[in-house]
């Protein structure tokens, strides 16, 4: 099993203590976002957890106890953009985040650090020229701490549409995004980084940019030293290259408040779930009710010990 922590919220930033408690107790419960009365209980132990993939904009709060992960293989998807407080109001200064990126890379190695510069949005303030300059500045700071950067252009999810007036998105000129992506990839290459896209419909191979995978089977197999008997994640959007995983997060629970976020779409739900947060609960932000149906979900390691990779 690969554990996704999490596409739905920033657990390393907002709920590290809860996550460490889940590892300590060896189980976690996940409420089905589409059928809220359905809850899955899964084991989270080293023998069944092949890899943990963390998604975060600020892993700083979990670093003090990072040694609690010593029995697990893991890597980070670390989003670091150039947006200001108008777009990412709840995050520390970008220089602080760059320092955290360096610190984490120094502890776990560059191979387990993936930089995400996404989503890329265009408006009168955040122009293509802004992104070119800011990307270069951040890439220079992160040089040596990562070898891969993921980019994507903003999608108009329902939740993003609700912020459309605030975001004041600009419709790209014909070829503008392809030009921007190509120049960003060239900059990334100059700092020793390979650029890939995340679920991007545009074909950017001519710019040297391949489609990537956030839950990256090839990377996990390299890190584990064996092949994994797992397939693609059928629950993701078309074009997603991720392998199957189990996501333990919950929507409407992140406190960073990023204006482009698809995972926070209800202020009332967010308030309610934050108020119900309990570190001792097996559920993130909530408790199991008497009308809930809890099902133990069988999980297992996908490692195939008979197939060794030539690394």
Structural descriptors:
single chain, 311 residues, alpha/beta, 8-stranded parallel sheet, 13 strands
Describe this structure in words.
The chain is α/β, with parallel strands linked by helices. The chain has one domain (2-308). It is built from 9 helices and 13 strands. The strands form 3 sheets. The chain has an 8-stranded parallel beta sheet with strand order 9-8-7-6-5-4-1-11. Strand 6 (113-120), helix 4 (128-142) and strand 7 form a beta-alpha-beta unit. Helix 4 (128-142) packs parallel to helix 7 (176-190). The longest helix is centred in the first third of the chain and has 15 residues, at 94-108. 37% of the residues are buried.
In short:
The protein is of the alpha/beta class and 311 residues long. 27% of the residues lie in helices and 20% in strands. α4 packs parallel to α7 (176-190).
User: Are there runs of 5+ residues with pLDDT below 50, and where?
Assistant: none
Q: What portion of residues belong to β-strands?
A: 15-25%
Mean pLDDT: 92
The helix/strand order is EHHEEEEHEHEHHHEEHEEHEE
What is the approximate shape? globular
Portion in helices: 25-40%
Whole-number tally of structural domains: 1
Question: What strand order characterises the main sheet?
Answer: 9-8-7-6-5-4-1-11
- The overall strand count is 13
Q: What about the largest sheet?
A: 8 strands, parallel
Helix count, DSSP H or I runs of 4 or more residues? 9
Structural class of the helices, strands and pairings? alpha/beta
Question: How large is the radius of gyration?
Answer: 19 Å
Spatial gap, N to C terminus: 22 Å
